[in-house]
Amino acid sequence: KPDKILPCPRCNSMDTKFCYYNNYNVNQPRHFCKNCQRYWTAGGTMRNVPVGAGRRKSKNSSLHYRHLL
Distances in Å between the alpha carbon of 44 and those of 6, 27, 63, 65? Predict the structure, then answer.
């Protein structure tokens, strides 16, 4: 686990945390920015991923039930 906190390359916020090593490669530490709610890899290319793209939407059972009727 990296010792120093890196600023987010997108919003320059220091409110970031280390998540894991991408592909178990210690040269690609994966971080999460709490300010802009996005993941980024140190040394990787910046991709335009929308906010919250990694999260799954919770299923609303009542809407699903009405669709079946």
Answer: 13, 10, 40, 43
pTM value is 0.57
Report helix, strand or coil for 23.
helix
Largest CA distance in the chain: 55
Distance between CA 67 and CA 59 in Å, rounded?
A: 13
pLDDT digits (tens, 9 = 90+) for 6-33: 888 888 888 989 888 877 777 788 889 9
DSSP strands (E only) in the chain:
16-21, 29-33, 38-41
